[in-house]
Specification:
Elements lengths: L1 H23 L3 H9 L3 H10 L2 H26 L2 H26 L1 H7 L1 H26 L9 H13 L7 H12 L5 H4 L1 E2 L6 E2 L6 H10 L3 E5 L6 E6 L23 E4 L4 H11 L3 E5 L5 E6 H9 L13 H9 L7
Parallel strand pairs: 2-3, 5-6
Antiparallel strand pairs: 1-7, 3-4, 6-7
Helix pairs in contact: 1-4, 1-5, 1-6, 2-3, 3-6, 4-5, 4-7, 5-6, 8-9
Length: 336
C-alpha cells in the first residue's frame, strides 16, 4: 500500500510541477490574441490562466504538500538516508524534470486537456489558496500585459522568417519591417531633391514643343513656381493637358484649385501619409527650416520606403533621384 501511495504522490507531484510551468509559460496577451483567432485551446485555458495568483497558489501548495507526503511515506518504507536519496531521485526525475520538459514543449495543448484537473485542484485547495491569492492581488495588483517594442517585434518577424515551419516569407518580412520602420524616417531622407526636379514657371507658354517636352519627361505632377523656383505656388497635372488645341495657353491656366501640401523636411512619413490620405493628394512640397523649397515627396516614395523596393515604371529614367542629384552636383561641392 505504501508503494502505491508513493507512486500516486509522485504522479501528483509531477502533475503540479508540470502544470505550474506549463500554465505560466502561457502569456496572457498571447492567449487573448489566440482567442481572437478562435483558438479553442486558448478559449479553454484562458479563464484559469487569467487568475494567475489563485492558480499559482493552488499548484504550489499542492506540489509542496504531495512532496512532503511522499517523503513521509518513503521514510516508513526505508531508513532516513535511503529514503532521502530515493525521494530526491523520484521527485527530481519524475516529479520535476520529465513533467516540466513535457509541459514546456506542449504547454497550450496539454493545458487545454488538463483544465478539468486544474479546476479540481482549485476546488480542493480553495480554502487555503484563495486567501493567499487575494493577498497577492492586493500587494502586486493584476498581472502585467506583455508589450513588445518595435525592435523586438522586428526580431520576432526575422526569427519567424528564418524558421522553416513559419508561413512568413522573405517578401512579407521585408514589408512588415518596413511598415514598422517608416514612421521613424523623415521626408528629407526620401524626397526627390530640387536640382533634379522638373518644374515649370507659371507663365510658361504651352506650345507644341513644350507639350512634347512635358510628355517626354514623363511626370504626372509638376511643381509650378512664380518668378523664382523657391516660390512654388501649385501643381500642374499632366493629364489636364491632354487634348489642348487652343493657342496662347500658359501653365498658370491649368493649375489645380487645391493648395499643394507644403511640409517641413523633418516631418515623419506616417504623418505625411495621413496628410496625403486626408487631402486626397499624392505629392507634397518639402521646405527646409529656412523656408526654402528643397524637393518633393510623393505617395509612391512612402510606399517604396515601406516595401523597401524602388518602383520604376516605363517613364522613369532613373531609379534613385537622390543619387542622381548628388552625382549631378558632385563637381561643385568642395570636400576640403
Amino acid at each position: 500500500m505504501e508503494y502505491l501511495i508513493v507512486t500516486i504522490l509522485v504522479i501528483l507531484s509531477g502533475s503540479f510541477s508540470g502544470l505550474t510551468l506549463g500554465f505560466f509559460s502561457l502569456n496572457i496577451t498571447s492567449l487573448e490574441r489566440k482567442i481572437k483567432l478562435k483558438d479553442k485551446r486558448a478559449i479553454k485555458v484562458y479563464p484559469i490562466r487569467k487568475r494567475g495568483n489563485l492558480l499559482l497558489c493552488t499548484l504550489l501548495i499542492g506540489n509542496v504538500a504531495v512532496n512532503s507526503a511522499a517523503a513521509i511515506f518513503l521514510g516508513e518504507i526505508a531508513s532516513g538516508l535511503i529514503a532521502g536519496i530515493i525521494s530526491t531521485v523520484l521527485i527530481v526525475i519524475f516529479g520535476e524534470i520529465i513533467p516540466q520538459a513535457v509541459f514546456s514543449r506542449f504547454a497550450l495543448s496539454l493545458g487545454a486537456k488538463t483544465v478539468w484537473l486544474v479546476k479540481i485542484f482549485i476546488f480542493l485547495l480553495y480554502p487555503v489558496a484563495y486567501p493567499l491569492s487575494l493577498l497577492l492581488d492586493k500587494m502586486l495588483g493584476e498581472e502585467l500585459q506583455t508589450v513588445w517594442s518595435k525592435r523586438e517585434i522586428k526580431e520576432i518577424i526575422k526569427h519567424h522568417e528564418e524558421n522553416e515551419d513559419s508561413d512568413i516569407d522573405k517578401d512579407e518580412e521585408r514589408i512588415l519591417i518596413g511598415a514598422l520602420s517608416f514612421s521613424e524616417t523623415t521626408a528629407l531622407h526620401i524626397m526627390t531633391p530640387k536640382p533634379v526636379l522638373y518644374t515649370l514657371e507659371k507663365g510658361t507658354l504651352l506650345d507644341q514643343n513644350k507639350l512634347i517636352e512635358i510628355r517626354e519627361k514623363g511626370f504626372t505632377r509638376i511643381p509650378v513656381y512664380d518668378t523664382t523656383e523657391d516660390n512654388v505656388i501649385g501643381i500642374l497635372y499632366s493629364k489636364d493637358l491632354i487634348g489642348i488645341v487652343e493657342e496662347g495657353k500658359i501653365v498658370g491656366d491649368y493649375l489645380t484649385n487645391k493648395n499643394p501640401i507644403m511640409v517641413k523636411e523633418t516631418i515623419q512619413l506616417d504623418a505625411l501619409m495621413n496628410h496625403f490620405i486626408k487631402q486626397k493628394m499624392h505629392l507634397a512640397l518639402v521646405f527646409n527650416t529656412f523656408g526654402t523649397f528643397i524637393g518633393v515627396v510623393t505617395l509612391e516614395d512612402i510606399i517604396e520606403e515601406i516595401i523597401k523596393v524602388e518602383i520604376v515604371d516605363e517613364a522613369d529614367l532613373t531609379d534613385d533621384m537622390q543619387h542622381l542629384a548628388i552625382e549631378k552636383h558632385k563637381a561643385n561641392i568642395l570636400d576640403h
